[in-house]
Amino acid sequence: MFLYSFFSAAARSDGAENAMPIKSRKMKSGVKTVASTAVPDGSAKNPKNIARTILRPESKLLALKNTKPIMTISNIKLLLKTAFEKNKYKLVSYFVGLYFWAALCYAFFTATEVNIMKFKMIHENYNVFDLDRSLKFYAEALGLLEKRRKTAADGSYIIVYLGNEESEFELELTWMRDFDRPYDLGDCEFHLAFRTDNFDAAHKKHEEMGCICFENPDMGIYFIEDPDGYWLEVVPVR
User: Cβ contacts of residue 209 below 8 Å, gap of 6+?
Assistant: First the structure.
């Protein structure tokens, strides 16, 4: 639709002075009368007449009578040149609008990519007062073994990552050399949960270790407490 109006604008600009009316002639069907416009002699190269002949359906009757081909390369070039000169501001507006919408779509899809980023939990950190004691507890109570550790060059801290084959999630234990007292956990309203496939055996073991700190029989869960006072929930497979 835009291209039709683009080329038609050049053709309509001075159609009144370049066209000569001809007699209406009936088609072979004898039903419909078609009025057309003739192209004056010597005006075959006039781009406005060319555009009018190309774009108007009723010009087909005249096109059949012309001995010279209208759609020549030179005429097309002349038509494009004239159309561009008369519609260059429309073209500029069109491409500016196209650029604007392209930029808007790019910004939208870029923002959408940010909104759909995925995150994966990889570890939980607990600061501990006695690192060796904590390592022994987690190995015995939950089967978490040391996977790797980081030690400061000056010995001011040690970070140990614990885990097992059941999950990629790790428990990070941080020991600070200059921290000279047990950690104050406040109300301790947080915990880390573990699921076991043998709930009764786990409960018996933790009962023997004396680390069970809270039980909820109605929910079928219980909590154990590590040497620093962190609560750890134990739940069965459901």
Answer: 140, 141, 224
Radius of gyration of the chain from its Cα atoms, rounded to whole angstroms: 43
Residue 20: strand, helix, or coil: strand
Pairing of strands 167-176, 123-128: parallel
Phi-psi region of 201 (alpha: psi -120 to 50; beta: other; left: phi over 0): alpha
Task: Print the SS3 string covering 126-185.
Answer: EEECCHHHHHHHHHHHHCCEEEEEEECCCCCEEEEEEEECCEEEEEEEEEECCCCCCCCC
Task: Provide the 3-class DSSP secondary structure of residue 28.
Answer: coil
pTM score of the predicted model: 0.54
Count, residues in the chain: 238
CA torsion 124-129-131-135 (nearest 10°) is -60
Q: Pick from 87, 77, 97: which is nearest to 3 by CA?
A: 87
What's the pLDDT tens digit per position in 143-187?
999 999 999 999 999 999 999 999 999 999 999 999 999 999 998
Nearest of 177, 166, 176, 237 to residue 201 by alpha carbon? 237
Neighbours of 175 (CB within 10 A): 20
Nearest-CA neighbor of 126 among 162, 178, 154?
162
Q: Which domains does the chain have, with CATH numbers?
A: 2-90 (no CATH), 123-236 (3.10.180.10)
